[in-house]
Amino acid sequence: MPPPNERDPLLEISGLRTHFSTREGTVKAVDGASLTVPRATTVCVVGESGCGKSVTARSVLGLIDHPGKIVAGEIRWHRTDREPLDLAALSPTGPELRSIRGREIAMVFQEPMASLSPMYTVGDQLMEAIRLHKEVTKDEARSMALDLLRRVGIPRPEQRFGAYSFQLSGGMCQRIMIAIALACDPALLIADEPTTALDVTTQARIIDLLRDIQAETGMSMLFITHDLGVVAEIADEVVVMYLGTVVERGGVDEIFHDAKHPYTKALLGSIPRMGAGTRQRLTTIRGNVPHPSDRPSGCPFHPRCGDAVPGLCDVEEPPEVVFGPARSARCVLHAMERSVR
Amino acid sequence: MLTFIGRRVLYMIPTLFAISVVAFAIIQAPPGDYLSTLVAKLQAEGEQVSRDELQALEARYGLDEPFHGQYWKWISGIMFRADFGQSFQWNRPVTDLIAEALPLTIVLSVTTLLVTWLIAFPIGLYSAVRQYSVADYVATTVGFLGLAIPNFMIALGLMYFMHSAFGMSVTGLFSPEYRDAPWNLGKLLDLAGHLWVPVLILGTAGTAGLIRVLRANLLDELKKPYVVAARARGMGERRLVVKYPVRVAMNPFISTVGWVLPALISGEVIVASILSLPTTGPLLLNALRSQDMYLAGSIILIVSVLTVIGTLLSDVLLAWLDPRVRLGYR
């Protein structure tokens, strides 16, 4: 196997706009987001609640709930030895997208307990995932399922196979969901806040498991989270989103040590630090994320930005300033710096 | 599972005992008894009843005994001899009267239940999956009309329509020539030909209700994360909906099985009277009016027993179908 090329893209999202038309007006949940997931790489998408991370992830597989719709943009899926496919152009209910879901791109969700139906055993749902895409007999599927359960670190898999979701802990359920996702050896795993609903120790174990599996299989991961601690653990590259757009992209070290965008800096500044003194107040980002239907003009972050330039940031859409192949920020400050240089 | 059923059967015993006492007490509660009704009737016809005659009758019917004496006489007869006592009004054993009316009542209620399910299930399913479509609005409108119009109104309307348009009489369950005939194929076909009218009328409200319940439940279930998760692993929409959300939304269908019989007997007396159906509803109504206490008490008791059994059945079915019930989730 040739060594994976660092910039060999697997998934390329460009100019994605996913809008929800409601009676009160159009909610632009994702409004021009672009990001790339290279092969064998973990890309973390971070941002506050309501910044469009989840909708971006779900747009990839066409899992947007009514009345949401992809209105513009491309989601290019690069398959080995085949022409890239634009997933955004496929019908969300059509057979092409269905054959990609679970087989080429799998997904793990935020609420592991609720993501499993309580009416069927976890083994039944795991076997279903296998049999949807592979032509195997029930017995073969069963032994494959048991292997998967072993692989995701479930003790006594034969017993757990016949258990129902409500008999298992949240961490166990998430392991089952990961086993379901791995059923067909996907090239990309989308993990939508897979550890948010779990307690801290379980979180760490699930993160370790995902990282090990990623290293072992060489699949890519698109990891959605709002937890910068998780990002530091698992990410190769980081995409910072704010109000439906990508404000900064970069390698994990570049983001943590050399953040360019004021929003990224503010996010990093709001992490509590050990030894900072108990009397020290935690830095917070001023204000709240505005509702996507009520998007500020110009740079969406300007009302909360300490460095905002009046007359510029509230008027002009900031340009994307590219620093390298996988490094960019969308901020006028850097654009000005550039032009001065 | 066996312990579950065993425990439920044991619970039935005190329940049934309580029901029998309450049923008997309620029938005894209004002032007077069958004899006062009889005397009033005889007086209205111009006859006089002497005190001696009255006492003789009281002794004969056991009406001079205290409440617990009368109750014991009744319940011991049922328990040890399957003898439900004598109907004063009909002057026949209660057992015979019930044996005539009850099977038809059960046939009617089971048929109504099945028809209700057959109509409500696909409509409710469609209404939820295609929410706010034209067909959903039509189903909703018809459903609310079915819920809002009293059943006896529908019965009267249908009778009038069938008579004026086709000159057909839609009352009863049998044509006159079969009414007292022994059971044969002709009588069975005749029953089938008559049965659809009460089934249709009695089923409307239930169908409308079930459509609403199924639609609401299914709409809730369709938004659950496990539906999205199943979709995300590449499952086809049709198979997905039937396998996951519909399974859960089925529960109200099963849990209402036990209520069908009491609803039919207590709620639909008016319809049964209008259509002169030979079911237990009108029989019970007459028994209550003439204070024919053994007949009324026995009907209430038997219906209660059937209801308790029906509830047990639906609970067992529910436990069989829903692992959360079976394994005592929360």
From TrEMBL, chain A:
It is a peripheral membrane protein. Its main location: membrane. The keyword Transport applies. One of its GO terms (molecular function) is ATP hydrolysis activity. Keywords: ATP-binding, Cell inner membrane, Cell membrane, Membrane, Nucleotide-binding, Translocase, Transport. One of its GO terms (cellular component) is plasma membrane. Signal peptide: none annotated. GO terms for biological process: peptide transport. It is found in: Cell membrane. It comes from the Bacteria. Pfam families: ABC_tran, oligo_HPY. CDD domains: ABC_NikE_OppD_transporters. Residues 11-268 form the ABC transporter domain. This is ABC transporter ATP-binding protein. It comes from Phytoactinopolyspora alkaliphila.
Automatic annotation (TrEMBL), chain B:
Keywords: Cell membrane, Membrane, Transmembrane, Transmembrane helix, Transport. It is found in: Cell membrane. It comes from the Bacteria. Gene3D superfamilies: MetI-like (1.10.3720.10). Residues 102-318 form the ABC transmembrane type-1 domain. The keyword Membrane applies. It is a multi-pass membrane protein. One of its GO terms (biological process) is transmembrane transport. The keyword Heme does not apply. The chain crosses the membrane at residues 9-29, 101-125, 137-162, 195-214, 253-275, 295-321. InterPro entries: BPD_transp_1_N (IPR045621), MetI-like (IPR000515), MetI-like_sf (IPR035906). GO terms for cellular component: plasma membrane. PANTHER family: INNER MEMBRANE ABC TRANSPORTER, OLIGOPEPTIDE ABC TRANSPORTER, PERMEASE PROTEIN. Belongs to the binding-protein-dependent transport system permease family. This is ABC transporter permease.
